[in-house]
Write a structure and sequence with these properties.
The complex is a heterodimer of chains A (320) and B (296).
Chain A lengths: L1 H5 L2 H12 L4 H37 L21 H8 L1 H34 L4 H9 L6 H11 L6 H8 L14 H26 L3 H9 L4 H12 L1 H16 L3 H6 L11 H10 L3 H32 L1
Helix pairs in contact in A: 5-9, 5-12, 9-12, 12-15, 14-15
Chain B lengths: L1 H15 L14 H25 L3 H4 L14 H9 L2 H32 L5 H10 L5 H14 L6 H5 L6 H12 L3 H9 L4 H9 L4 H17 L2 H6 L8 H10 L6 H34 L2
Helix pairs in contact in B: 2-15, 4-15, 5-9, 5-12, 9-12, 10-11, 12-15, 14-15
The chains are: A mainly alpha (320), B mainly alpha (296).
Keywords (chain B): Cell membrane, Membrane, Transmembrane, Transmembrane helix, Transport
GO cellular component, one term (chain B): plasma membrane
Main location (chain B): membrane
């Protein structure tokens, strides 16, 4: 009963409401704006105090000589211009950690993407066990980096570690992975690939699902082989997804820290000390201004990397 | 003849399988692919299995060369030391309190702003969204020095509140909730307005009840991130009674317990197992969430 009586007026009121919306702009608009800002307020307050404020404060600090002792005595802080940045560029340790971080990025991102893509292509082709495979491969992603670092440090042990035991089966005398200045960083990268490729795999799977069946089938009818289907159909259509994956993986890898903190303490001989680790150390020494400047250079690197990846992987999109 | 005879039953069998409706011989899954994928899965899971098995060995056996594949003596002594000798119950509670508070805060505050950004018109909307999105890219290390100064000044260093507050409202949640709420039909809101509902009431009684799936995804992802968070709790916690699990584990791993592998592996199990359980129970939401934010 109520449905037939109430439904006729509804469309009748709705139709003019839509039409008069622009004429009655002020009261509804203002109501909406007030409500919107009320809803936004808690977030914005927290955000300004704990995110935006500190981001700007950090930039300000990077131009000062602020030390730990200055928390109590803010008037002792002096403006030093770009001194911190000049010092950083000349600091051999900072150069070293920059190199380490770049190496980690350049090794880690392509490897992680390749593993994720291969696994995603595989899972995309199977008919059964899809769910199990997807969840299983994703497991490492949800775990604490600190905890898996403890586990991998144990796996990498020189004597009795799982890696060297397995290598021993085929007659290879495994090295002390984390004791070597050349192997320790790649060893951390290997763990990072294991820990992180699951995220990209899920994203790539979602991307693969958006490729229309008809395109692949048409190519098959035209006689395209598996490789050329991948090269000329899958890869180009997956381009935006790959870009997204490269960006988020790159941003994450530029900030690596926990692995090194737990597995190598940045050693041996600073071979696994990262830019974040450097900042953390400087903070520990009480050099707040210097630490802030280092963190801003890292931030700059993140922005630059994202920009480069957009240019490089996104160029075909722009041409269209 | 034999070819035709063997092919016929095969075709009948594949016709029943739902995946074969797209046709195409190349689409049929070869057995080697299953073998490779399951082999890969084995490799991915091995570190977890090794962690669990080793944590049940006595300390001397953990260090045995060559390692024993199955514990000769199964013991819970490592766990016993964690929970009675060391203060892991406290660390566990601290982790749980921080993660739950951060999760609740993000679910509430991010959905509020997400709705405003998705469905309401207001001055400053575009700028606000751009700024919030922009901070997604900012490394945590950029803010922690001033944040430390701030929390020290307002007396929150070495407190759980100091750990919680900076993560109570994050940009990721806003992005996720905005994406989801945008997909809800505008007619719902218009109808509620015609019925005379105020703007805030529309959010709380019309929109929020429909956000279940997105809130679940956000809740789980936030909980996992917060549970595993390391750098900030490491900076804030100064006495042992304020350690979260990852902080405690990391400091034990680099401190004087560095060679007590049995103990450390048991600690890793305690950190990892709860999230693996949560994930396996609720993995559907997580997968949806990643796909939702990754591919719009």
């Amino acid at each position: 009963m109520s449905a037939p009586t109430s439904s006729p007026p509804a469309p009748a009121t709705r139709a003019p409401e839509g039409g008069t919306r622009s004429r009655h702009v002020d009261p509804t608009r203002r109501q909406q704006a007030v409500a919107a800002w009320m809803l936004a307020l808690p977030f914005v307050l927290l955000f300004v105090v704990f995110s935006l404020g500190p981001v700007l404060a950090s930039l300000g600090m990077s131009f000062t000589d602020m030390k730990r002792t200055d928390i109590r005595n803010p008037f002792a802080v002096e403006f030093v211009g770009i001194d911190n940045y000049v010092k950083l560029v000349q600091d051999p340790l900072f150069r070293k950690v920059t190199l380490n971080t770049l190496l980690y990025l350049l090794l880690g991102v392509p490897l992680t993407m390749a593993v994720a893509l291969v696994v995603a292509l595989g899972i995309n082709r199977v008919e059964r066990l899809k769910g199990l495979l997807r969840v299983g491969y994703y497991l490492p992603v949800v775990t604490s980096i600190v905890a898996v670092s403890v586990v991998w440090k144990f796996l990498y042990r020189d004597n009795g570690g799982l890696f060297n035991t397995v290598l021993g089966w085929v007659g290879i005398d495994g090295p002390g992975w984390l004791d070597s200045t050349t192997l320790s960083l790649p060893a951390l990268v290997l763990m990072a690939v294991w820990r992180n490729f699951g995220t990209l795999m899920v994203i790539f799977l979602a991307g693969l699902a958006t490729i229309p069946q008809e395109v692949a089938e048409a190519a098959e009818v035209d006689g395209a082989t598996g490789w050329s289907r991948f090269r000329y159909i899958t890869l180009p259509m997956l381009r935006p997804t790959l870009l997204f994956g490269a960006v988020i993986t790159g941003i994450g890898y530029l900030q690596f820290f926990e692995e090194a903190f737990v597995m190598t303490k940045g050693g041996p001989l600073d071979s696994t000390r990262s830019a974040t680790y450097f900042t953390f150390d400087q903070f520990g020494f009480g050099n707040y201004g210097y630490a802030a400047a280092a963190s801003y250079l890292l931030f700059l690197a993140v922005v630059l990397l994202t920009w480069v990846q957009f240019r490089w992987l996104g160029e075909r999109e722009a041409k269209r | 003849m034999t070819v035709i005879e063997t092919e016929a039953p095969q075709r009948a069998a594949t016709k029943k399988a739902p995946a074969s409706r797209e046709g195409g011989a190349w689409r049929r899954t070869p057995a080697w692919l299953y073998a490779v994928l399951l082999g890969g899965l084995f490799l991915v899971v091995v570190p977890f299995a090794w962690m669990l098995v080793s944590s049940l060995k006595p300390e001397a056996e953990v260090r045995a060369v060559p390692p024993t594949w199955w514990p000769e003596t199964v013991t819970l002594e490592n766990y016993d030391r964690l929970f009675t000798g060391l203060d892991f119950p406290t660390y566990f509670m601290n982790s749980a309190i921080v993660a739950l508070a951060v999760t609740a805060g993000n679910m509430v505050f991010c959905s509020m702003l997400g709705y405003a950004l998705a469905k309401l018109d207001f001055p400053g909307k575009k700028a606000l969204f751009a700024i919030v999105l922009g901070t997604l890219m900012i490394p945590g290390v950029v803010t922690f020095v001033p944040l430390f100064v701030l929390t020290t000044k307002i007396g929150l260093s070495n407190t759980l509140i100091g750990m919680i507050l900076p993560f109570l409202a994050g940009p990721f949640g806003v992005f996720l909730m905005r994406q989801f709420i945008q997909s809800l039909p505008d007619e719902l809101i218009q109808a509620a307005r015609i019925d005379g509902a105020g703007e805030l009431r529309i959010f709380f009684s019309v929109i929020l009840p429909l956000c279940g799936p997105a809130l679940a995804t956000l809740g789980i992802l936030t909980f996992l991130t917060s549970w595993n968070n390391f750098l900030w709790p490491l900076v804030v916690a100064q006495t042992e009674d304020k350690y979260t699990l990852p902080v405690a584990l990391a400091l034990y791993a680099v401190g004087q317990n560095a060679t007590q592998y049995g103990l450390l592996l048991a600690g890793s199990v305690v950190v990892v197992l709860p999230v693996l359980a949560v994930f396996l129970l609720l993995q559907r939401h997580i997968m949806q969430g990643i796909a939702m934010t990754g591919i719009k």
